[in-house]
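Page 37, top half.
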Amino acid sequence: MRLTLSLATAANPRSWPILDGTVKPDGIDLVPTVIHPSEMFWRQLKFQDFDISEMSMSSLMMATAHGNDDWIGIPIFTTRKFFHTEILVRRDAGINEPKDLKGKRVGVPEYQQTAALWTRGALQHEFGVHQTDMEHWMERVPTHSHGGATAFKPPPGTTIHQVPIEKSLGQMMVSGELQATIHYLRDNNLVDRSRVDLEHHPDIKTLFPDPIAEGVRYHQKTGIFPINHGMVIRREIAEKHPWTVLNLLKAYDQANEIANRQRIAHVEYHVWAGLISAEAGKALREPAIRQGIKANRKTLETAAQYSHEQGLTPRLMKLEELFAPSAMGQ
């Protein structure tokens, strides 16, 4: 079976064996296209361009909750990150800790995007800062946003302004019109328009002075490594050819093993060369990422909880609604 596949431009090493053909799913001939995720999700949600693709977990939950049954999830998770550690703030805004975000003007590329979902969840549950405490400014316009394709409406009590089309989050951060921004994106694609390098701008800093230390703290406390992107397949294909789901999952497990072997080889070298300690090497040998529902249930259910809490989904989404039945036991 010949199927089109879309993966993110920043595909991690666990996707490379799929992209370059080192690993081939049994019975499936994949025709890959590499696209920026912001553009990919918009195209999939609005135009259903590809048979299989990465997908924003937040958008999958929202689309499914509002009756869009074009896609069914496969528990393959391609990107993860501690998104709240990446919040950027103006140095002159008086924002030195999360509670200082209350009452501030905060930019976000797309209010419903998974990175923003996780960031708001961490702010609420770790630091007592709720979405209603901030004034939000969204860059993407409805015609080119995930929200435009999933019938997104601002949750009750939440203030969301549209960034004027002639401006961008980057410009508004530099000018002082915004005081902070969540998950800033300046990559060239069809839906994001910011281009200013805020990371190296003298007037901008990260909210957390040591983002890595905050990520470690969060993970040690919660046990959660936030999932951003999963994989989806056209529901009509999965229902007509149910074997495709587990064959794809099996292929990604094989690709994951290749990436793990490469990672461990790097760890062994760094320990041997004295670049990291034996203790660090022991920790790094442990697999950080596993596919499937069983290994990721807590993280997925937390994302669903946050989505409902934040008013993105009208009810608490069950994993059985989001993922193919044959994959639920994996």
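Page 37, bottom half:
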Amino acid sequence: MSSPPFISVILPVYNGQEYLATALDSLCRQSEVSVLDVIAVDDGSTDHTLAILESYRDRLPLRVVAQARAGNWVAGVNKGLSLAVGEYVSILHQDDLWAPDRLATLLEWTCRMKGVDMFLNPSHYIDRQGRSLGLWSCPLPLHGRPLAPAEWFPSLLVQNFISMPAPVMRRETLLRLPRMDEAVVYTADWKLWLTLASTCSAVYIPSPITSFRIHAVSQTIQCIRNLADYRRQMEQVVADFLPALTGITPDHERWRRLALYSIEVNVALAARAQNGKKSLVPVLIQGLGLGLVDFRLYVKCSRIRERVLSRLRAGFVRNPLEKVIHG
């Protein structure tokens, strides 16, 4: 009986002809593509997406699932997860990339750290042409040992600092968890990472072996126009995970304040993206009210400087809406 693939790569795709081939090429450049299990779930594309996928069948161990338009990338991920057979699972959006050495790096680290449920890494921000806009790092220790929930859950509740292509998760662990929440397209991945962080160990690999593309149209942030709904989704995530926070750290009230302040910043940035005249001064004053030590902790956990600078370098000054809050 043959062994299962090392990793299932789930690609939720929709009208991805501009970037999809580049994402697939990044998988083709890996050291041992035979250990991959690539599952593309197409959400009713009307462009050349399906033709592009078909053209890679002889280059990748690729399965293509075509379904009617649902308008929900999370549903595509859930479908892919139901079909995955790899020991590990990773999600790759059609506009993001793997570095050529990612698979080799993962093979090395998972062999060295058996029993770890999740592996993370920094990502490069890239623009439409694939040029680097800076580094998206995680506020986690770089010593390469397994991190207990108390070492990464509280800061993750402040802000989703994990880029979509970065996590690699043990499939058996995912099967014990609820499906990703298809009702919250803005925060579904954050909820999944937090569910894992509340009970599981993680290793932070210091190498930036994935890239996260910033551009004007993405599956994750198509509709951040309803600020009330966006606020509601983030507030619900914090409320849902407060019991876990209380059980993980005695300093839970401090982390709760930081998480709620982070929501105010994210909503203010989204409002600014919609209306360039919207002032950010009130939310800055509110942050200073946390005290200097806690405000600096917020800045560290939120990666706010990295997020904003990357958008400025990309030229999104008036309208940095795409992926800016979620990432």
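Margin note: The chain has twelve helices and eleven strands.
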